[in-house]
Amino acid sequence: MSDQSFEREHRNALYFLAAISMVFMTLAIAVQPLFLRNVLDISFESAGAVNASVQVVTEVLDLALIFYLGYLSDRFGRVPIATIGFLVAAFGALLAPLSLELGAFFGIGGLAFYYVMRIIMSLGTGAVWPQISALAGDSTDFDSRPRFMANMAFMMALGGTLVYAILMQMPKYTGYIVVMVLTAGVGLIGAYVSHRCLVDIAPKLEKKEFPWARIKELLKKDDRLRLSFASAFFARADMVFIGLFLMMWFIYFADLIKVEQEVAAAEAGSLIGLVGIVVLVSLPAWGRAIEVMGRVKTLALGMALSGTGFVGLGFIVNPFDWEIVPFLVLAALGQAGCLVAPQVLTIDLTPKDIRGSMLGMFNVVGGIGIVVFVQIGGFLFDHIGPHAPFVLIGVANFAVVTYSLWVLRGDGTDEQISEDICDDIEKVFEQN
Predict the structure, then answer these.
(1) Where in the chain are the domains?
(2) Which residues form the Major facilitator superfamily (MFS) profile domain (predicted)?
(3) Is residue 430 very low, low, confident or very high in pLDDT (cuts 50, 70, 90)?
(4) Dihedral Cα 53, 340, 338, 272, nearest 10 deg
């Protein structure tokens, strides 16, 4: 039975914040290639390395923060951390458009200052979305969790779709600086709603030290939990790849075919918007699939579809050709399933009082995956071609499919997650 104190308006606030946080994160990534190319004058030859490095630097510094904030959310609550995170992200977004001027003023250069602002933005959002996921898990039980998490993922996908379908069309008319400033406004709205509308309902973690032993024991006892962590490592970079490398592919290929960069960005934005629409439309079906098929089988199916789509992009030469569309649709269908199943599985298998810590570790593992694959992807983009990063991530997705089939060995069922393991582990640590 879900906690009755978590009222309908608080759930609606969670839906809204899921969309707002994704708007902020996606907009920051989407406008980055335009800003680096047109304001900071980053050349085509170094575009992959520079854009990937910005993403990697932000992810590396996110890791320790997300990990520690997960523990703090168990000790002191999710809501204060989410509110402060939105405010920090908004501060970075407000100063990012002034990177060239402020970088010269402080004597560090525009690119270095932009790095710092992107780090601040990333640290802020890194504090937000894990708390939103934890709050969603706190307010649901085994039966209601798949549908509620699917609805949350729906709102996140809606936020990403709005960015590419609408907001990334704005640079043609207003310029990209206006869009960058708009990002700061989104962060401030998120902070206000978090402070006014959310409540903490999970029991607080009493012990002051980080629950290493309990988490280690949970991971040791259940290979489904290990699978969810593996999916985070190998597949969390998927949507980052679409947002970053597809946009870069269009913007820098535009120079070869004499298309204006703003037009190329709009074209890429439309396709990424299509990806978001496919995710939106299919998410309710994935929520139902988790209820019917089980967590692990749904995760495996999503990874298989996504891997097929990404590997298929390796056969594309000109991204402006229509042949790119079916592969992006396949990748989007798979990603819709992968947005929900791993987190549902992780929350199912974790006691409430250490859920923030476990999700913190889950997100750290995913962040490490983003760092590894985005860095390799940037190298492949520069030295092999724009299609190479997508093939890389497609192969990684198929690796997770293989592990999923191993987890489903035996009778192949994905029975209801029992809380007995969690209860037994808690009793052991209460006795110590």
Answers:
(1) 8-431
(2) 14-412
(3) very low
(4) -60
